[in-house]
């Protein structure tokens, strides 16, 4: 999601530095942004001169030290608390003391992440929805130590991106995923228990509940590893059996069938058209 966040920031006039684990991944991220902006131009949503200006505002950051002059850094790593903590441990020492740090986590405690940094009062959750250039919502999540000025600055920043803000309290999975992921997990249980096939479940929810995408197709789009991580956060954080991840979800992740990004999940994407795997 980092490239999507960089996309909307640059399109809104912000100077952006994009950091990743390797130069190749940074280049791939910028190429993705360029391609997505080109599609926006083709559809009339963006002027070509605005696309060119936005791309000029995006520069690669090849090392953490390149972020030293940033006013705001948004972490958008995989939904793994250990990885995020390591990033903040490396990041914070190189930043300006007044810089704000945000996490795009979709479920992990902002208070707990903030406590691992040298600036919990200047730490906040800014949770974008995927795909970022398309989805209008952003969840703002305050940690227990987040100062009012940090929240106000984050709110002003998100408003400049022309996004709609919803404020969530710092509880597991916040608002969207607290509701969405248990629904997806229940759809997986429905498949696991043989109530319906992949195709039947997705068709039922698209036509019966007017969802634009079936829950199993959506799970593949999100990434089954991400779905499992969020369900584990809910299950461990709330200690309620209704959040227990479905064993079939666990099995798919163990198999490396992580959804669209891996070529297989509840659908097989390796052919010309996706085909249900069950």
TrEMBL record:
Q: What is its EC number?
A: 1.1.1.157
Task: Provide the alphabetized UniProt keywords.
Answer: Oxidoreductase
Q: Which GO terms describe its biological process?
A: fatty acid metabolic process
* UniProt keyword annotation of Oxidoreductase present: yes
| InterPro entries linked | 3-OHacyl-CoA_DH, 3-OHacyl-CoA_DH_CS, 3-OHacyl-CoA_DH_NAD-bd, 3HC_DH_C, 6-PGluconate_DH-like_C_sf, 6PGD_dom2, NAD(P)-bd_dom_sf
Highest taxon in the source lineage? Bacteria
Residue ranges of domain 3-hydroxyacyl-CoA dehydrogenase C-terminal in the record: 174-269
Site (Important for catalytic activity) residue list: 127
Q: Which PROSITE patterns match?
A: 3HCDH (PS00067)
Q: Which SUPFAM superfamilies match?
A: 6-phosphogluconate dehydrogenase C-terminal domain-like, NAD(P)-binding Rossmann-fold domains
What GO molecular functions are on record for this protein? 3-hydroxybutyryl-CoA dehydrogenase activity; NAD+ binding
**Alphabetized Pfam families for the sequence:** 3HCDH (PF00725), 3HCDH_N (PF02737)
Q: Domain named 3-hydroxyacyl-CoA dehydrogenase NAD binding: which ranges? A: 1-170
Q: Which NCBIfam families match?
A: PRK05808.1, PRK07530.1
Q: Give the family from UniProt.
A: Belongs to the 3-hydroxyacyl-CoA dehydrogenase family.
What protein name applies here?
A: 3-hydroxybutyryl-CoA dehydrogenase
Please give the organism: Nitratireductor basaltis
């Amino acid at each position: 999601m980092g490239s999507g966040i960089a996309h909307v920031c640059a399109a809104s006039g912000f100077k952006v530095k994009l950091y990743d684990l390797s130069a190749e991944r940074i280049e791939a991220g910028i190429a993705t942004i360029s391609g997505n902006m080109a599609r926006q131009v083709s559809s009339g949503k963006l002027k070509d001169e605005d696309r060119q200006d936005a791309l000029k505002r995006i520069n690669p950051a090849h090392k953490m030290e390149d972020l030293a002059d940033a006013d705001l850094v948004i972490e958008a790593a995989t939904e793994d608390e250990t990885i995020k903590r390591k990033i903040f441990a490396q990041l914070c020492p190189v930043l300006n003391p007044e810089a704000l740090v945000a996490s795009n986590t979709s479920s992990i405690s902002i208070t707990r992440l903030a406590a691992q940094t040298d600036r919990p009062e200047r730490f906040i959750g800014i949770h974008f929805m995927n795909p970022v250039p398309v989805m209008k919502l952003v969840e703002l999540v305050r940690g227990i130590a987040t100062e009012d000025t940090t929240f106000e600055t984050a709110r002003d920043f998100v408003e400049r991106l022309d996004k709609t803000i919803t404020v969530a309290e710092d509880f597991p999975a916040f608002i969207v995923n607290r509701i969405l992921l248990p629904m997806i997990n229940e759809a997986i249980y429905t498949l696991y228990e043989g109530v319906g096939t992949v195709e039947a479940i997705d068709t039922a929810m698209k036509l019966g509940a007017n969802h634009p995408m079936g829950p199993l197709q959506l799970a593949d789009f999100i990434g089954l590893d991400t779905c499992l991580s969020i369900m584990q956060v809910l299950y461990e954080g709330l200690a309620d059996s209704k959040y227990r991840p479905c064993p079939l979800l666990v099995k798919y992740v163990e198999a490396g069938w992580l959804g669209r990004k891996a070529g297989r999940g509840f659908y097989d994407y390796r052919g010309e058209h996706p085909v249900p795997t069950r």
